[in-house]
Specification:
Strand content: 15-25%
CATH architecture of the largest domain: 2-Layer Sandwich
Largest sheet: 4 strands, antiparallel
Number of helices: 11
Radius of gyration: 34 Å
Structural class: alpha+beta
Strand order of the largest sheet: 2-3-1-4
Shape: elongated
Distance between the termini: 33 Å
CATH class of the largest domain: Alpha Beta
Oligomer: single chain
Number of domains: 2
Order of helices and strands: HHEHHHEEHHEHHHH
CATH topology of the largest domain: Alpha-Beta Plaits
Length: 237
């Protein structure tokens, strides 16, 4: 019984729910959200340690410790790539008048064993190309400064995958923007319909008079809904 009454409330003010949905669609079509085009550059490096020269014919564990040190070095180097100092060096080498904080915020690093992955997201493809080349040059040519700070001067970084620049697709938030707006408009429309019905003092049902304790002398049946009238007009098979 209550579900039927809820349905009647929504149907009575269906114009409000549909109006809000159409208003959201119209505003989205006239003033779509600004979605700047972003580009990403991804590159991978192999990080290793040059083994010490042999001092005799005896066996050492230098190869084992070399590989182990390289893995530790990748962990440290992944944090160095995301640092403010590294971003400043990249900005100077790229020759771009941009703050180092912007490069730092756009840079992400990942690691797997002795492989370092660097990803940069930027709104300008030409500037991103220069930034990516600066990253490659800094790590493969001018990285001795950082290696010395990490206590490893015999480190070697080799480029495996050169920078691959491509456009970034729409994010999940951008794809769900319109559906979320429509869901909020639907919820707001239904809530307003129930609020208006709560404030409405019109007598619509027999139960409304019975709740007031008033005697009922006669009852006029309600008019059929439009969908019921259309159903009755259908020709019989």
């Amino acid at each position: 019984m209550e579900l039927r009454l809820y349905g009647e409330i929504i149907e009575r003010r269906l114009w409000l729910v549909v109006g809000l949905l159409l208003l959201v669609l119209l505003s989205y079509a006239l003033w779509p959200p600004h979605q700047p085009t972003l580009y990403t550059a991804q590159m991978r490096f192999a990080v290793g340690i040059r083994p010490e020269p042999g001092a005799g014919t005896y066996y050492t564990y230098d190869r084992y410790y070399t590989w182990l040190t390289a893995e530790y070095l990748v962990d440290d180097l992944a944090e160095v790539v995301k640092s403010q100092a590294f971003a400043q060096d990249i900005a100077q080498r790229a020759g771009l008048a941009i703050p180092a904080g912007a490069i730092q915020g756009a840079t992400a690093a990942g690691k797997l064993h002795r492989i370092l992955s660097v990803s940069i997201t930027w709104p300008n493809a030409q500037e991103l190309e220069r930034i990516a080349q600066a990253v490659v040059a800094t790590l493969t040519e001018g990285g001795l400064t950082y290696f010395a700070q990490l206590g490893t001067e015999r480190a070697a970084v080799a480029l495996i995958d050169p920078p691959a620049i491509g456009a970034v697709g729409r994010s999940l938030r951008q794809r769900l923007d319109l559906p979320l707006r429509l869901i909020l408009a639907l919820a707001a429309g239904v809530a307003l319909a129930f609020l208006l019905d709560y404030l409405d003092t019109t007598v619509r049902h027999r139960a409304d008079l019975e709740s007031l304790g008033l005697p009922i002398l006669a009852e006029i049946p309600c008019r059929q809904r439009w969908w019921a009238r259309l159903w009755r007009r259908r020709p019989l098979p």
